[in-house]
Write a structure and sequence with these properties.
Elements: E1 2-6, H1 9-26, E2 31-34, H2 41-52, E3 62-65, E4 67-69, H3 80-87, E5 99-100, H4 111-124, E6 130-133, E7 155-158, H5 161-168, E8 179-182, H6 185-189, E9 194-198, H7 204-212, E10 230-235, H8 245-261
Parallel strand pairs: 1-10, 2-3, 2-6, 3-5, 6-9, 9-10
Antiparallel strand pairs: 4-8, 7-8
Bound molecules: fructose -6-phosphate.
Fructose -6-phosphate binds next to loops.
């Protein structure tokens, strides 16, 4: 795993956008797994900015969101669908038919069947090229809460009190559903590359566990240690508890140097 420590949130956003942009340049019909939350908002804002400057084209991009609350209508301001359209999709040239969310409507078909169909849709699209992730204070990725199976696929999860409290801040007093449908850890692990983003001191403990802790279902993000192409992009505050911070910085600097050495002039 490559740990990239940036000075602040703004620099973190720039770094993340560079990687997303170069993927889309190399593969204009790339398949992205997208998160919601406060961490990626700057990334979406920057992507819109470069789209307006005609530096990026989303017309071939296909997206699969990581998670959604069970039973929440798409038009509800607390839904992740609402967040995604308001924050990103409405502002770029992505095609509506290329946007996908996990099944979350109550009633109708069997939910397990619908979750399998979501997995099949991802596979049918050729698999995820890049999973972009935030991380919860408890080490969750997607809504794979502590003790989630490290081999899990898309399914319903019960949210922890901690996650409900953290998200409540954004939900202006509305009662949150305590169930969500989320891609599983194995779904995320099958992505060809992963970008994990974390900003702020309140993520420092989860970031330390993810990078330096033992692999454990109690901190689901630790499973990323087994992924061959993970970039963990964090700011100084989120890197606060890392014991080998200067080594990670050196590795990153040397990686860029090696890239330069082997780039044709
Ligand atoms: C959201 C998601 C979650 C968040 C995590 C961090 O779609 O999957 O795992 O990424 O809870 O949230 P923020 O960025 O709001 O701190």
């Amino acid at each position: 795993m490559q740990v990239i420590i940036k000075k602040n949130y703004e620099e973190l956003v720039k770094e993340a956008v560079t990687h997303i942009k170069s993927l889309i340049k190399a593969k204009p019909d790339a398949v992205l797994c997208l998160p919601t939350g406060s961490t990626p908002t700057g990334v979406y804002k920057k992507l819109i900015e470069i789209y307006n400057k005609k530096e990026i084209d989303f017309s071939g991009i296909r997206t699969f969101n990581l998670d959604e609350y069970v039973g929440i209508p798409a038009a509800h301001p607390s839904s992740f669908r609402y967040y995604m359209f308001e924050t990103f999709f409405n502002h770029v040239n992505i095609k509506k038919e290329n946007i996908h969310f996990p099944p979350s409507e109550i009633g109708g078909e069997n939910i397990e069947e619908q979750c399998r169909e979501y997995e099949d849709l991802i596979k049918g699209a050729g698999g995820l090229d890049m999973a972009i992730l935030g991380i919860g204070r408890n080490g969750h990725i997607g809504f794979n809460e502590p003790t989630s199976s490290l081999q899990s696929r898309t399914r319903v999860k019960t949210l922890t009190g901690e996650t409900l409290r953290d998200n409540d801040i954004e939900f202006e007093g509305d009662r949150l559903p305590d169930l969500a449908v989320t891609m599983g850890i194995a779904t995320i692990m099958a992505a060809r590359s992963v970008l994990l983003l974390a900003s702020g001191e309140n993520k420092a403990a989860a970031v330390k566990n993810t990078i330096e802790g033992p692999i454990s279902a109690f901190c689901p993000a630790t499973m990323l240690q087994l992924h061959p192409r993970v970039k963990i992009i964090i700011d100084e505050e989120a890197a606060d508890y890392l014991s080998r911070k200067s080594y990670y910085k050196k590795v990153y600097e040397r990686t860029l140097y090696v890239e330069q050495l082997f780039t044709k002039k």
